[in-house]
Design a protein that fits this description.
six-stranded antiparallel β-sheet; alpha/beta; about 550 residues
Length: about 550
Amino acid sequence: MANQHVNAVVVGAGAGGGVVAKVLSEAGLSVVLLERGTWQSFDDHTDDELISQRTTVLGNAYGPDDARYRRVCENPDGSTRIVLPSEGGYNNVAACVGSGTLSYGAMAWRFMPQDFKMRSTYGCPDGSTLDDWPLTYEDLEPCYERAEWEIGVAGDDSTNPFAAPRRKPRPMPAFPYNKEARLLVQAAEQLKWHPFPVPMLRNSIPYGGRPQCIHMRSCVGFACPINAKCGTQNTVIPAALATGHCELRTNAVVSEVVLDERGHARGVRYFDSHDRLQEQTADLVVVSASATETARLLLNSKSKLFPNGAGNNNDWVGRNLQGHAYCGAEGLMADEIYEEAGPGACVAFSDFNHGNSGLRGGAMLCNEFIALPYLYTGIRPPGAPRWGLAHKEFQRRNYKRTIRVKGPVQEMPVFESRVRVDPAVKDHWGLPVARLSGRRHPHDVEIAKFMVEKAAQLLRATGAADIWTSVPGTGGPSGGQHQAGTCRMGNDPKTSVTNRHGQVHGIDNLFVADGSLNVTNGGFNPVLTIMALGYWVGGYIAKEWKGGAHFHA
């Protein structure tokens, strides 16, 4: 039996797609939400560190799996290698309801107003495609607010003079500082910095019918055992299903967006849980599969009018792949500062996101999430033994004395940092896999060097000794996490993939609603911005639909 035609099909039940499904179904549209993974919970994997997305020693707890998925990574010398999901080069892309929001660190940052106008603020460096967004912070602010209240954010900006303006406070109070954070606050005050609590998509108090956080140390990389972490799987997706207008289909691997001879989207084709090819027709399609998988899907969706992939007649789909060039400093304290209270990260500093002489942007700095013992084996100063008795002694002696401050550098987008589809390598379903290539811009390293000195300065003020720093290189593409930029929005179809509403240029009933849209990626974790973009794109579709617009052919 053929699937019944619906108003909208949404591909991907993550940060963007889950929000879009809620907005459209509450507006009365019939929606099918397709997710390649399935429902997952803490009980499915508990907190085995070796199967966490933070280590991937035994594979990703929440998918994708090694048996069916793979990618191709292009090395700086032009050679290639096939990468499995359990290997670092695959990048973090979950396959489950909620996607990364099931197991993420849950930092809930708003981008700053300057982050939406980087080119006009700083100018574009040679070798970059740095540009302004076609919308402003003020445009997106109501969507940030709605994400904070409907999904749930705890935080307090009262001591952060750099915070973006807001009309309404967050719905939950900030989490308290741990021992490490209290030391960092004292040090920051000596330096005249401005510490404040990290905003979190976690329940600091009972909220949304779910309990408050129990501070499990293994929070990051795992589902919450009591459902206190706020993802789309336990907020907006259940709300969408409750309307009666939304159907969620799991284990649905979308192979292409189907385009007709006039260039309109007719729906999608996908493989179901039995690997049978299905077709779901719809008046409109929203792709929210992540910056790498959304680009891959559009590139695999070829037609007479779009022979190089949907929306790709100007060769911008898959371009400008960004992540975050992480940098920071670590050191050793004389006394133990470790507390058995997760997630660990709780104090931040935005003093250096902008206004750094000679630099375009910067980064937020904060203390780090708790590193479980296996992950900690990779946290070593230069020259420290990596195996044997000395390695074990370092682990025993310093695990509870290590202090860490890190930050995500706002990268300069690069045209040649990109996602393509590989002509030879296929996945389990016979679909061309994503091929990642390119490198970071050299200016990212300049910013990182500046930021690590600030992080080291802060650690020195705490009394830490044996401080060491980490600066990323430029070899290989970015996007290991926080991937963005591959279907950027813009006013000019020649230099962007969608318009300011996420509507693909030349295909009026095809939309994108995930980090692919980000023109730049900010100096912050981007998930709250992706959620806000879900409200932005979904709200536009719902408004136009109510006004009588016909997105279909």
